[in-house]
Specification:
mainly beta, 62 strands, 8-stranded mixed sheet, 4% helix, 5 helices, 5-stranded mixed sheet, elongated
Length: 876
Amino acid sequence: MVKGYIKFLHFILVFVFFSFFSGNIQAQCAGDDGELPVCDIPNPANKTINLYTALGGTPTPGGTWSDDDESGGLDANTGVLNAHLIRQSRIYRYTYTVTGAAGCADNSAVVTVTIGGYSGVASNSTQCSATINFNLFEAFNGLFLGPQYNGQWYDNTNNKKVDAVINISEFEGDYEFTYTMPAIGTCPAVSSTAVITVARAPKAGTAVNLALCASDGLSAYKNFDLTNLITGQDPGGTWRDGNRISTGELTFAGDRFVDIEKIYDRFGEGYYYFAYKVLSPKPICLDEERVTFIKLENKLDFTGATVTVNNDICETEIGTASYSVTIKKGTAPIPNGSYNVIFRVSGPNAKTELVTANFNNGVLVFPIDSNYFQQVGTFNVNIISIYKNNSVRICANIMGNLSDDLIIYPLPDLENAKIAPTTTCQNEGALIQISDAIKLADGIYDLTYNLAGANQASGQIARVTFTGGNASFTLSPNLSFNAGNAVLTITNITHVVSQCSSTANVIGNILINPLPNTAAVRMQINNVCFEKPVSVSMSGLGILTDITLSYTVTHNNNAIPLTVTLPVSGGTTSFILPATAVSNPGSYTVSILKLTNNENGCGATLSNLSYAFLINAIPAAPNAVSQPFCKVDNATVASLQPNGAQYKWYASETATTPLPATDVLQTGNYYVKETSSAGCTSEATMISVTINDPAAPELNSEGSGFCGLDNPTILDLSNRTNSPASVVWYDAQTNGNVLSSTTPLVENGRYYGFDFSNQTNCISEKSIEVVVSLTNCDAPETLFIPDGFSPNGDGVNDAFVIPDIDFLYPDYILEIYNRYGSRMYKGFKNKPGWDGLNYEASGISSGIAVNGVYFYVLHFNKDNKPPRQGRLYLNR
């Protein structure tokens, strides 16, 4: 084949041909690549597989072998492969290399070996669940070859794949596991099965330690079940007292209840141990015991405790000072012993630290590093917590505010400070104001100063508080006795708290003004009515132009202090007292206490300038009620109640001019005030005046016409009005007589009707005038006319009268004739009936008519009724 290949390449480039030909010739030194399957791994023959024999061709002996895939089974010196040493089933390559042989340059060949799977020889195993993690490979017989590790375990009992290491802590009983190596190449898959028997280990549970603050009370733990101190334990175990000195609480086998309060009462605070033990039912597992403890602690009470950091210093002492912290207990006892103290220091080097120190008789002292305090300032040392070294810190110790400040004070420095020029008055303190002390820390200082000029003093001390470089103090009134100019010089300053001190030279000027002259001052106040302004007049003020008065207003031994600023002209002035100072009637006294000249601010005290005056009471508002009147009465202001010389009536609440008594009242509001003998007028009382005037009656549609035949009366006339029940009739418009309801109506009678209101008891001012007619009668079918009369003066039938003719035919005309046809009488309404005299004739024919027959003609003049004729007989 090689020769054929050479012939094929013979026609190609000679150089290429030569190179290729030469390479194939060299490959024959190591032989050809080979393949070798190894399936029966446990076969003893597979411990000594000679790979050289697996090479093809004619390999040159003496070459070297290499384990290319690091199988671990090759002896590189001999080329012998031990398959028992290979722990993984897979394909491996091994290279044989020949070097240095003639004609061979680094020639090599590869033997590919397929290592089949080996699942080992399984055996059963018994384990305790306390083992927790069990490696299934431990179930193989270790006397021969162990299984390869790249197989797969399968839990036959639970039908699932598993890893080689399984957790058996919850297993109990028999479990079957199969280990399978998969097929590879021509090698088949192989399997081994092991049965693992797991005995359940006893469980004493997990300890849950208990820490209690006995100071908070233990009554809830008088019958404490120790099983509360473990979880997940097997039942049936037993408890034992694990303390060096038994608590005596467990008194019989199976007892699990303890009285923690009793333990504390007997033994105090500390650790108390108890153990729970569960026996193993099988020898493979050990008994298990779990120890737990109860820690009882007392609360530490630092109420009232103090912390002192020693010591505050001046800045000049920073380099040499050392410091310590002293904690003193409060009212509660603190046991002697070792304690941990957690504290924090503020400042540029702030840090929280823990130190251990001893309380001894209620006092604990520990040093504190001076590196905290390397500059001027305030450093707070705050005790965060204090607890015993062996404490579990179950108690909330009562700490309070345990802290102290350590202060490093600067030297006081008044450089650049100024004293403002000030003005005061004789015998008054002067306010000395210092500013621009920019180098001075805020705080309280003692200043030493001297005084020269109008008043002199030396070595005076003033205590001041500086804030932001500013401070002030008041010069004693004893040092301003004389008016004039004085000079104040501060010579030294000392910080009161630290007593750090330095010299100073700060100068200020003081002007002391004279007091006003009050020898001629007088006061005048007039009596006034309550709530009227009270004016105070002042005189004798000399050349003063602007003053302030301090005074009191005294009433019922209660003095109210007041001030007022006033201009003065020509030595006089006045002012009004505040209403709040004269808020009640009575006797008052104004006393001037001090008079201040506002031009220089100086005031003189007055001790005997007072004036008494009266504030007269204002009468109470009169008691008055609303009042009704009838318009027809024409009531005036004089009619109002109350009345009298002290009462005045007004048209409005604010009116000042009273109404004349003769003013006629009108509907509306009126106001009454009372004036006392002192001339004080009360508040107004308002009343409402109502002028009642019923409307005049009105006739209805029937009008004033009646029929005299019906004998109408005033009642009939009333019934023809719109107010028949309340109308009142008079026979005249004014000063008339009241007509009763039975008064007969007369023809052409004039009647005057007024309406009367029962509600207001008033009669109307206006009336209705009615002229009555009695002729409103219906004509009868027949009219009775007498046929005779006897005018003899006996009062009976003395005239010829047609009854009711005036009512029935008011426009009638009656004519009487004698038998000769001569008319003797002509009558009509409102003319008397014929009395037997001849009224028509004159002379001899006149006179008394003789007895006999006469004739009448009656003209009705109504309804077109024709005249009626007849005869009558006159018989004297």
